[in-house]
Structures are given as structure tokens and as C-alpha cells.
Amino acid sequence: MAPQEYPLFKAEVDVDAFPVTYNYMVKFDESKTETEQFQRQREKGAESLNEFFNRSITVKKHPELPRAYEAFQYFEPSKLYDDSFVATIVVKCDENQLNSLYQDTDSVEKIAAEVIYASPYTVKTFKEAKFGLSGESTREVPKLSYRIKNLKNAGKELYNRTSLKLRAEHMDVSYLRDKIYADQENPIYKASCDENDGVYGDLGYYGDDVSNQMYDAYSYKGDDKTQNEEAHIAQDIIPLVKAIDDYKNGSSNNFPLDADTFLKSMALEFLAGAIDNYWNKPGNYFLYKDNSKNQWYFHDADFHYTFGINYREDVMLNTPLSEYPPADENIKKERPPLDALRSHPENETKFKGIIERLLKTSFNEKALFPRIDSMAELIREDAQWDISITPKENPNPTSGRNMAENIETFDKEAKSEEESGFNGGFTFKYFIKTRISLVASELNIEVPADYEKNLGTVTTPYANVKSDKKDGKKGKDAKSASIKTMVWNKHCWTLAIAFIMAIFFY
Q1: Which residue from 219, 221, 220 is spatially nearest to 163, judged by alpha carbons?
Q2: How many independent structural domains does the chain possess?
Q3: b (16+ CB within 10 A) / e for 91-126
């Protein structure tokens, strides 16, 4: 095969008849070769796609989830998040600089890198990217997460994105919790949580003094660099939380957050047992303001600690709505905007109606389980490769060292409905089916034998389907949206050579 655009190799082959079966062999040197242990098949007239060595499934479309509500008006999905294939990301960088990051995992340095994104349909190269570590507590674990920035090339971006976070999913051996949560859900402010200091972004009003430590949890993420952090907090956050407080105290009828989207986020946090999100542990969210409407929107983020993962899994499964959240004792339970809304009977009725609607549509095992099974099949070989890599990148991990040792661990966590999951947690499916049963019983909800889909399904933004806008180049009408995660792409820049093949049969 002849080299094409790195890491793509290309060949043209004459065949006598279709379908044709074939596989790939990589010759490393005269004495070492590796051959795929499965057969591929091509039908006459089938599209020639980029195929990935040792990845038997190139494209797989999944069962779609029923839509619980109409799509959020500001959400425009990027083709980057086509989940019908596993993309490969190759990062070329200076080895010494990379090792320096590994030696100091607290480093916020971004090193120069060439980043190549390869999918079944395209290869995109960004020669002036920036590459660094990502996360907070995840910097202490064996498998690290990464942030890539400046994905620009001659004015073009990666499907209207200039940055990516590559999650290691070290705590989730199913690799699917974050993705499935995001399936069911344009930020300016990001709130963090430091429970040890008692400082967290609970959206409470603590007076007009911007130096109050309770406002330290908020950080400005917008484009205005002319003012410092305190100025942004004073002019935006404090008026917002004061307006929430006024609504709570009955001195105003105006609730400044979009109530519908906020309540939907809280309902999903409750159902999925979101340990590390706003209701249970204030943080991991964004706030976006539509200045034209003077309207704020709440945008949840980071969903890896969900669905019975091995941390406080029992209370997250069994705590009823009437006692929620089961927050740690050093985090108070008050959530000002949610408490304010639920103090109005009509909002409490709406909130419980949202939970009921989710149980009858997208948060329904008849809808979720086939999608989980399909995705598990797509990523299984990559999960097996990821599990097999030893040692991991972090040379000095201080937590999270109990790792999956074989692919059977992945199979059980992703596919089994047994109670006992990895490292003391619940399996993915056991948590879902048990949570549905418990919540339905508490709220007297009759979950249908099959899910409802009167609003249709949530469709994937397929990368091979042409759209009205040119992907990757922003025009005056192009929008930018925030999608939470890209979960499959792990470690391929330092740990393996990505061989991508395209064969054209005639």
C-alpha cells in the first residue's frame, strides 16, 4: 500500500467478483508482521471508507433515543460528535516536553503539537495546535485526560471546534456513562467545587461584597478581557443570584434562569445519580446569558460520576426525591434556584412531570439498553486495547490505581444487568433499571411496556451528510454550541501507531 495523507495508506485492487473478503497485515520489518484476525467484506458499489487496522467495525449506526422534549433552541450539533464510528487522533509533539508534563501532572502548560484527526470519511491536520493535560482530581490517576487547543488550519476548524477535551474515563470501565448521560441532555461562567473549604457555586446570594469567599467558585469564561474577574462577578453573577434570592423570598415574580431547561437538568441529575453535579455537589456547570432576552441558561457538564459508579453508589441509587440530595455532610443541601422554583406548587408539579416524561421516553430501559449494547459493540476493541496498555502515562499516580485488568470487566460493566459492578459499584444497566423502578414507585408513575416517541427521536449529526454550512469554516450565520464530551479517543498519540487503510476495488 502506498502512503497517502499521513496516517492514511491507499491501494487499488482488481477483483473478479463481489462480494470480496479481505483483511490487512502490517509488516514492521523482515521478521515481524501482524495480521488482522477477522475478515472484512465489501459489496459491489459500496463506498470506499478509511478503515482502521484491527478495528473490525468501521461505521455502526445505533438505535436512536426518543425525544422527551423539543430541541433546545440554541443547540446546533457538530459533526465532530457523529457517534457511529470511533475516530482516531494522532498527536505529534516533542517527547521531552511530553515527558515533562507527565512528571508534573499539575502543570497547566500547553506544548506545541501537530494534531491529526482521522475518521472513516476524512483526515484533517492541524500543525499549530496546543496540547496539555486536563482535569482536576483526574490528574492524580494512572490514565490522564488531555486538552487540545488551536485546532485551526487556514481559517478552517475541526467541525466548528477549535478545542477538544480527551477524557480517559479512568473511573468508568464501561466508557459509556458520560456519553449516555450527554445523549439525554453556550457557556460563559463555569462553577467549580471545593468541598473541603466549603466554597462552591450553589448560586446562592451572599451579599454585594464581591470579595465574599462564596463567590470565589465562579470564573469568567467569556471573551471580554478588558475587565478583571471581580468586575465580571460584580456585574453579572451577583445580580443573577440576587434575582434568584428575590424570587425565593417573594419580592419578585421574575426568575432569571430559564426554568424549563434548569428543571430538566435537575431531573436528569436525580435519575442518573449524578454525584459530581449541581444538585448533589454544586459545580460542573456553565451559565450562559442571552443578552438579547436578558435570559440566563443553566448548562450541566461532566457526567462521569453517574449511573452507580463506585462512589456513594448506594445512596445515589436509593435516596428518594423527598430526601434528595444525599450530599456529603460538609455540603449543605440548600440549592437556592431549585428550592425557589419548587416552593411554588405549579413548578413542583412541572418538575415531577418532567421526571415522568423522561421515564416514559429517553430514560427508559427499552430505549437505553439497545443503544448501550450497540455502542459497547462499536468500542469494544478499543476498550480492549486501552485496558491492555501498561504502564499508563502517569508515572506517579496517587489515586484511582484499581484498574480494569481484562475485557471481561468491560463486558460486565457495559452489558450485564447484574447488581455487582466494577470496584464495588453497580453495573450500568442494573443502576438504570433499579432507579426507574424505585422512582416510579415513589412518584406513582406507570412506566409503559415500551417507550413513547411522539416527538420522534434524537438524530446523530452524521459526518458524511452534507449540510448547508461549510463544516469547519465559520460564516456570519454559523453558530457555535457546546457539547460535553468526546469519549472514545484515548492515548493514540504516544502509545500506538495508527494505521489507516483505504482500498478501492474495481
Answers
A1: 221
A2: 2
A3: bbbeeeebeebbeebeeeebbebbbbbbbbbbbbeb
Largest CA distance in the chain: 81
Domain ranges, residue 175: 79-182+453-495
Residue closest to 302 by CA, chosen among 161, 185, 144, 158 = 185
CB–CB of 253/243 below 8 Å?
no
Cα angle for residues 322, 326, 332 (degrees, 5° grid): 100
> pLDDT of 192-201, one tens digit each?
665 555 566 8
pLDDT (tens digit, 9 = 90+) per residue, 363-378? Answer: 999 999 999 999 999 9
Q: Which of 321, 336, 360 is the last residue of a domain?
A: 360
pLDDT at residue 486 is higher than 50: no
Q: For residue 428, which phi and psi values (nearest 5 degrees)?
A: -55, -55
- pTM score, two decimals? 0.88
Annotate 273-288 with b (16+ C-beta within 10 A) or e (fewer): bbbbbbbbbbbbbbbb
Distance of CA 283 to the CA centre of its chain: 16
pLDDT reported for residue 199? 61
* Dihedral pair phi/psi, residue 230, rounded to 5°: -60, -35
